[in-house]
Structures are given as structure tokens and as C-alpha cells.
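Q: C-alpha cells for this one, please.
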Amino acid sequence: MSDLQSLKQEILRLTREYSKQVHASFRPGDDPDRKPWQQGDPIPYAGRVFTEEEVAAAVGTTLDFWLTLGTEGMAMEKELAAFLGVRHSLLVNSGSSANLIAISALTSYKLPASKRIFPGDEVITVAAGFPTTVSPIIQVGAVPVFIDANPITGNACCDQLEAAYAPGKTKAVMMAHALGNPFDVAATLAFCRKYDLWLVEDNCDALGCSYSMPRDLAESLGFSDNSPGLDDGPDRVIRWTGTWGDISTQSFYPPHHLTMGEGGAVNIVNDQKLRVVAESFRDWGRDCWCPSGVDNTCNKRFDWQLGDLPKGYDHKYTYSHLGFNLKPLDTQAAIGRVQMKRLPNFIEARKHNWQTLREGLHSLSDVLDFALPTHATEWHEDGSFSWDSSGCRTTCSWFGFKIAVRPTAPFSRTDLARELDQHHVGNRMLFGGNLLRQPAFVQLKKDNPQAYRVVSDLQGADDIMNEILFLGTYPGLTAAMLKAKISVIRGFCASPNHELAAPQAC
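A: Here is the predicted structure, written as C-alpha cells:
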């Protein structure tokens, strides 16, 4: 080993030692070296979970100082695609950027005109959720058509898809798997197949969730293979969410299933042309597909003739789309590659934490209502579920533990949220609630009454807005933290007068 290699290894050894001492409270919840949680300490709803290995990976790539997306990025893209079983994954700088790239790709002139999203075309989405599932639709000049959401699952009411369809105008369905609970994939796919529509899965909250259906149904929708690492028996097809549609997105922001700090990905399920188009939009809109630092992959860098450019104009500076620069750093990808190795354990921890909270709060079912996986009809204390007659099943890697305060309860959702906040128990609304009540969408409608279209009265989205919050299930939670959450909620619900904490400043 050279002196420089020895020096680097010594730096990384010291980095690991530093991280062990400084970052012990960020280790997984079941890690024996994790700093113990003390009564009265905050319990975040989510956060980054890492050890010294992520820190060493970040420092190691920083010492090499390539910085922009490079070998670590290419490796992570391959590893993520292999985990999911998709054609390709493209790293981007956030889940919101991933959604922007996904919908932008469907506007490309390189797609058949009958499939391309033109300004004024419509994209069906759901009214409750995170705004950047919807805002890219508007940003590319399309019209979102909102269907309602089911307060129990948090997902779209897919029985409204037909009512939302407009012949000649509808080009795609784009919606999220809410809080790690898959939406009704079978119904959505059948609808998209019927009308030859794109399906964009916002999988940002759902990495590690799976959806299964009877084999005959799956094959009628064009699927016969399971995702890597999944098996639901010979008579069924089971796949990860994010692999059923044409294109899907991930977020790697700290609260999500794995983290790169900031970061995300666009997954191309099958169509290689979509990969080339999505990569172009990510990388300034350029026509060239060479990675950073690489030239002439096509062996005809000075032989192309595109647009009105002279023949032989440098392909590295030829632009086929009005694109962006939305790449992450290679340092982030190095962190993400370590996180990828933790993903199976992270998925199981989220399932375990959800079940712990569900068991601990079951006695409060008279005042609180709890989530069910899509297609489930009843939860059982052993962690199993009863299922509907569709033959479809979901397995949730829960992003959060959703609670609805029943209208008959002697307190409101806001009362409960304030009590949790007083005890430093992290909680969140289901993101934007009914997005159409948000000031941005109210103003949008005032400025342009045709900016979006609505199906139904959106009562479910209003119920989500008014009655629901969620707690954390992230893998940094310890048994003591889960017990404390349950204790705070039980104590509040048992209070005869529900004396509430004073509102806290933001």
C-alpha cells in the first residue's frame, strides 16, 4: 500500500471513530451501540439513520474530490435498478425533481404524438397528498384532474378514474402510494391499459412496499414475473411498487426509506426510449448521453446533424429538450450505496414499528381510527389482515402511522397534535391535506379557472385535511420511544377534560 493510500485509510479510520462518538443517536433503533433515548428527549417523526460507514463513504469520495455525479452515482443507479428489477434508475437531486423529470419526459417530441403530453392535455391525480406530485403536471403545461382520496388508506378512490377520463385529452395517471401504502394498482393499471395511458408511480414514500395479484389478472395486464427477492407462490405475481407503471420516482430526503441527504431517482421500468429522454431532461436537455467526464460514447461525436445545426456540431453541446440540471453529487451517491445495504432491515423495522403502535393504541378505537393497507378489510392483533374479494394484496413498508380522530371524539385532530407537540412527539399532517384548499391552488384557480379539473366533492380529501395526522415509523425509533408515544396518546385520550397544552410557536 502506498503512503497516500495508507494516509487515506488512516483518515477514514479516524472518521469512523469520530462518527461513533458524535453520531450515536442516529444509529438504527435496534443497534446496541445506539445512544439510549431518555424520557423527555424529543421523538422525531422521521430522520436520518446511519452509522460511521455512511460518514466514511462520504469523506472517502470527498477526498477523491470528483464531486459531480460519477462512479459512485453510476454504481448506485445500477444497484437501485437491480433491487427493484427495473430497466434503469437515474439519480436526481430530490424526489420533487424526480417527479418533474418523470412528467417532463412524457412531453418529449421523441415519443409518438398520440402518447405525448401536449399543453392542455390532462393527467389524472389525487387531491390529497404532497404538492410536488401535482405541481410538475402544471409546470409542463398540462391540466391535473383531481379524484378523491380514501381516508382509511390515504390513497386515490380509483372508482372515480372513469369519471375523470376525457377522450382525446387524458394522457396519463400520476399519483403517489400514500405513506407507504400502495394504491389500487390493479384497478389503475386496468384503466391505463384500456385507454393506452401512461402510469407514473410516485414511489417516494413507498420504497420496499409490494403489491400482488392473481397470476391470470397480472398476465392480462402484461406482467408475469416477480420482482427480485419476492415470491408469492406460483398462482400469484408480486412486484415492488414503482415497477408496475411506465416510470416511477423515489425520494432520498432524510425522512424517507433511505437517504442521500438530498436526492431522489427516476425509475424507467421497461422503455429504453424513456430512459434516454428522462436523462436528457435531467442533464440540461442535451442530446448526448455520455456520463460526466466521458466523451464520444457514440463514436460519432462530430458526425451528427440535428436541428438546424451544421453537420458535425459537437454532440456534447447539442440540446434536444428544454431541460434542467438536476443531478446529485457523487458524495451523496456514496452515502446512498451504504444505505442500500441497510434497506431490507429498514423495511422490516418500519413494519415492526407500525405493528407496535397499532397494538398499543388498539384500545382507543372508539375515538381513533387507523389505517388499513389497500385491499385489507380488517387488522388482527397478530399483525395479519383480512382481505377483500379482489384477490389483490399489499405489503406496506410504512412511511408513517396514520391516525384519524373520529368526529364523535371529545377532542379534535389539532388538540391531539398540540398534545403530542407539548411532549416533543413528532407528528405531521398528511402533507398538504386537500391540496385544492392550499393557497397556491386557490390562487391558481383565481388566475386561471381552467388550470385544473375536479371530479366529485372531494369529501375524503377534506376528511384527511381535518381529521388525520401521522406519527413516525422510521427505523431510528427504539422500543422506549415507541412506548412513550403510546403512553402520551393513551394518557391524553383517557383524560376526562382533555386539558390542552398552549399552542407552541413555529
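A few notes: Residues 71-293+308-317 form a domain with the Aspartate Aminotransferase; domain 2 fold (CATH 3.40.640.10). The chain has a mean pLDDT of 96.
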